[in-house]
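Ticket #4471: structure export looks truncated?
Reporter: QA, pipeline team
Priority: medium

Steps to reproduce: submit the single chain below to the structure queue and open the exported record.
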Amino acid sequence: MSIEFSEHARIQLRRRNIFEKLILKAVREPDDVLSSFRGRKLRRMKVSDKILEVATKTEGSKITVITAYYLEEEL
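Actual output as written to the record:
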């Protein structure tokens, strides 16, 4: 499986101060995966007291990271 980052994702990760290494871990080893629109997946991983959500699109064996952001932990 190859993982690529869209230009939008790279910009947002810099702006949100999220490291690519953490995104790669969330894509490979998510705690949860939800379906989204247009066949996209939302991969979630708990990081400290927040949840990192990574929006991805899969084409064959290639996964493209579209964006990523933190959610407040749901209680």
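Status: closed, not a bug. The export was complete when the record was re-opened. Leaving a note from the reviewer for reference: The two ends are 33 Å apart (CA to CA).
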